[in-house]
Every structure is written in structure tokens, then in C-alpha cells.
Amino acid sequence: MQPTPNPRQIPVIPARITLRQIRVVHGGTVALDGVSATIRSGRVTALAGANGSGKSTLLGVLAGIQPWQGGERLAAQAGRIALVVQQSAAPDTLPLTVLETVSMGRWAHRGLWRPLSGVDRDIIAVSIEALGLAGLERRSLGELSGGQRQRAMVAQGLAQRADVLLLDEPAAGLDGDALLLIDLAIRAEAARGVAVVCATHDPEVIRRSDRVVRLQAGRVAEEDGEARAAGEELGGSD
Predict the structure, then answer these.
(1) What's residue 230's pLDDT?
(2) CB 178 within 8 Å of CB 152
(3) How far is the C-alpha of 116 from the C-alpha of 130, rounded, in Å?
(4) Burial of 64: CB neighbours in 10 Å, binned 0-12, 13-18, 19+
(5) Higher pLDDT, 132 or 108
(6) Residue 82: beta bridge partners?
(7) Burial category of 130 from C-beta neighbours within 10 Å (exposed 0-12, middle 13-18, buried 19 and up)
């Protein structure tokens, strides 16, 4: 029989963002009600739930762009945060090519007006290749399929080389091949220590995640995966 591990021997996975009893109200409607969460490095966490359950709102709080009315957000160890929106957020008429879209991911490092360095260009090329967009660099977003546009948005997120990568419905409307490319890309990010969070209702994304947080009516209804085994804090108010 194997000896029971001493809790002190279990390696501590750094917390990037910690939420405590977060409450968000939109126009009198409670969007999040007492949600607590610890997002850790090197893990893919799925925020699951039906439309209107609070997934996108919680993603916004994690990103620091969604105001909250109660609770606290601790992000001293968050580092750089990248938020990948749904492809529908980029209008067809936006006159941007794939290369320009992905290159925008380097603005946080270089600034809007400074020229891209050789390192920047290498990162952009690697990000485009990772999402299977090589050869489409000069195509405008309006010329792409919905799945290709979504992959361009994810490639932009990869190009940021962030410490926390947040994705809103990255698998929406994608076929199996595109879903696999995104899955491999975010897995590679987690492997290099990035904290990855996907707001999704796609069963494949949920199945492949390390941790799953299920939201219902703005509360954490269920949490499963390695977080429970490790005793990490992740829950909602009673």
C-alpha cells in the first residue's frame, strides 16, 4: 500500500487571480452572486453553463474590465492578461488582414507606434502557424469563414504571450479540425505555465479541460476536476 502523501509535499501551484464573493449587477439584474474562484498557472479551466448563466460576466471580472459591486479581486500575481473575444465581435467590414489582426497582439509589448522587432515577427508567425492560418496572412477578416476568423482571434491572444489567457466561446461554430487546432494551442500555453480560462458550453472543450466550473443563474452550481482533489478554493455563496 502506498503511503498517504503529506499535504506539505504537494507542490503549490501559483494562483494568478483570486476572486472572493464577487457580485455583479446589470441594470438591477444580478449577473454574479457571491462567486469565489482561484485561477492557477498551467491549467485549463472551463467556465460552463447555459447562456445567461454568467460565464462572460465572470470572464470580464477575471480580465479586470467588468465592474463588480461586491467582493474582491486579487490579481497581484496575474501578470499580463489576454482576452480573446468571440469572432462575432469583429465586424465583417473591419479592414484588417489576418497578419494585422495577429500583429495587434504585440501592441501591449511594443506600443502602437513602435515598429515590430524580429522577435515580435517570429512570435506572430508562430501564432499564425499554430492556428493553421499560414498562407492566409494577407486575407481580410471579411474574406474568412467564421471558424478562420475565430482562429485569427485566438492567434492574436497567443501573440500577446500573456500569463493569463481568457477565451470567450472559442469553439463556437467550429468544425472538428479547427477545434483541435485551438485545443492544441491552448494546451501548449498551459504547458508553458499560462493560466487558461475558457467560457464555453461546448462539451468537447469542457471534457478536455483540467478543471470545470459550472455556473447557474450567476452562482457556482458545481466544480469538478483536479481542483477538488487538491482542495483549491472555488465555490459560490449559499
Answers:
(1) 37
(2) no
(3) 20
(4) middle
(5) 132
(6) 165
(7) buried
pTM for the whole structure: 0.85
- The 3-state DSSP class for residue 218 equals coil
The residues facing 33 across adjacent strands are: 23
Checking if the pLDDT of 233 tops 60, the result is no
Whether 164 contacts 17, CB under 8 Å: yes
Q: What pLDDT is attached to residue 104?
A: 92
Q: What are the pLDDT digits (tens) for 143-169?
A: 988 888 889 999 999 999 999 999 999
Q: Where are the alpha helices (DSSP H) in 111-225?
A: 118-130, 146-159, 176-191, 203-208
Q: What angle do CA 58, 64, 69 make, to 5 degrees?
A: 65
pLDDT on residue 3: 52
- Mode of pairing for the β-strands spanning 15-26 and 29-40: antiparallel
Q: Where are the alpha helices (DSSP H) in the chain?
A: 55-63, 98-103, 107-110, 118-130, 146-159, 176-191, 203-208, 226-230
48 pairs with which residues across the strands?
200, 214
pLDDT at 1: 46
Enumerate residues 6+ apart whose C-beta is below 8 A from 116: 103, 106, 110, 124
Query: Angle between the 176-191 and 146-159 helix axes, to the nearest 10 degrees?
Result: 10
> Is the pLDDT at 78 greater than 60, yes or no?
yes
pLDDT attached to residue 12: 58
Long-range pairs, 206-209, Cβ under 8 A, ≥24: 206/46, 206/48, 208/44, 208/183, 209/44, 209/45, 209/46
